[in-house]
Specification:
two-stranded antiparallel sheet; globular; 34% helix
Length: 89
């Protein structure tokens, strides 16, 4: 995947998230696009990051499901608890 100027704002944001390390790949295929990144699981915030991304990317819209898929899924972390109890695949 190559860095595309259309993805600069998104990759800049992702680079600010704790536990996301290394190069962020981006790509486009027909009407779909993708972003690939690595979460350093040794980072103390890693599973909280997974939990937050799982909620925001899958359930951010109140009225309709977003056309995104991020696994594992998670309820809003600030309402429920830690990733050990609330992440599900």
């Amino acid at each position: 995947m190559s860095e595309d100027s259309e993805f600069i704002a998104l990759t800049t944001l992702l680079n600010r998230i704790p536990a996301i390390k290394g190069r962020i790949g981006t790509g486009r295929d027909d009407a779909a696009w993708s972003v690939k990144f690595v979460i350093d699981i040794s980072d103390p915030l890693a599973w909280r990051v997974v939990q937050e991304l799982g909620h925001v990317l899958n359930y951010l819209s109140l009225t309709e499901r977003l056309p995104t898929v991020f696994m594992p899924v998670s309820p809003p972390p600030y309402l429920n608890g830690g990733p050990a109890d609330f992440l599900c695949g």
